[in-house]
């Protein structure tokens, strides 16, 4: 994620990679890493003005799903 973030104008790519990493974390039961990535995903969604998606993800993160 950090390497992808260094690429200029790569927010959509970052969103895609972040979603794939979250899915992997769920599959591998990597809770702490998943939570960090979900937080980053929400930040990226807010940056891209995808407020509804960010709020949906944020409410799931807060609940612990």
Give an overview in words.
The protein has helices at residues 2-5, 11-28, 31-47, 51-63. The chain is an all-alpha fold and 65 residues long. The protein has one domain. It is flat and about 30 Å long. The two termini are 22 Å apart.
Which key terms come to mind for this protein?
single chain, 65 residues, 80% helix
Question: How many angstroms separate the termini?
Answer: 22 Å
Count of helical regions:
4
DSSP helix fraction: over 70%
Tell me about the biggest sheet?
A: none
User: What does the overall shape look like?
Assistant: flat
Number of strands: 0
* Unreliable residue runs: none
Radius of gyration: 12 Å
How many domain regions?
1
Strand and helix order: HHHH
The fraction of residues in strands falls at under 5%
SS content category: mainly alpha
| Quaternary structure type | single chain
What integer is the average pLDDT?
Answer: 84
